[in-house]
Design a protein that fits this description.
Blueprint: E1 2-3, H1 4-11, E2 21-24, H2 30-45, H3 51-61, H4 64-72, E3 76-83, E4 86-96, E5 99-107, H5 116-130, E6 135-141, H6 145-153, E7 157-166, E8 169-181
Parallel strand pairs: 1-8, 5-6
Antiparallel strand pairs: 2-3, 3-4, 4-5, 6-8, 7-8
Helix pairs in contact: 1-5, 2-4
Length: 191
């Protein structure tokens, strides 16, 4: 089990030369959320899936109405990653009795590898720490080795799988998790 500080220190990336801002998505930014959601999902998965299944998924899961419902859910929160004047990715997390779920980290292909994904993941760790949550989990497509390596590099381990329905195609997501030790009030500032 890692401490919060160990996870953040080991996850910190010095490679990013870009200055990204991570900030909450507001309800009046629903259209921007929908645009970045569709763009990044399509960039990430279109080459490995049929256009029909991609279209069915987008029409069901990433519409303005569906995203509005998700944005209004008090158990969920969204964060944008921005460069000056441009939204380049986003994070969606869900709070539950099982811990903090990272439902989505999607990033514009143009900026992948620049550190923005790490900054979004660091935000999830920060939120877990702030809420006293000791477990973070997520699902990642079994055919996305780049994402799997990213999460493994950050201390996540595979603990199972579940079905993810992309249009009419049932795909397998690997379930990954990390446990974070929350320091007690007595030892938090001990040297």
């Amino acid at each position: 089990m890692c401490t919060f500080e160990q996870v953040i220190f080991s996850a910190y990336s010095l490679q990013s030369k870009e200055i990204y801002t991570i900030r909450p998505v507001t309800p009046n930014e629903l259209l921007e959320l929908q645009v970045i959601s569709e763009r990044t999902f399509f960039e990430t998965f279109a080459k490995d899936n049929s256009i029909e299944n991609m279209q069915l998924y987008l029409e069901k899961n990433l519409t303005v109405d569906r995203l509005a419902e998700e944005l209004e859910d008090p158990r969920s929160v969204f964060y944008f990653a921005e460069l000056p004047g441009e939204i380049v990715g986003y994070l969606k997390i869900n709070y539950s009795v099982e811990g903090l779920e990272i439902e989505r980290i999607y990033i514009n292909q143009r900026v992948q590898g620049s550190g923005v994904g790490q900054k979004l993941l660091d935000k999830a760790f920060e939120l877990a720490h702030d809420h006293g949550i000791e477990r973070i989990w997520l699902g990642v497509w079994e055919h996305n080795p780049k994402a799997i390596r990213f999460y493994e590099k950050n201390g996540f381990a595979i603990y199972g799988s579940h079905i993810f329905k992309l249009g009419n195609d049932e795909q397998r997501d690997l379930l990954m998790q990390i446990s974070i030790h929350q320091p007690s009030a007595d030892t938090r500032f001990a040297c």
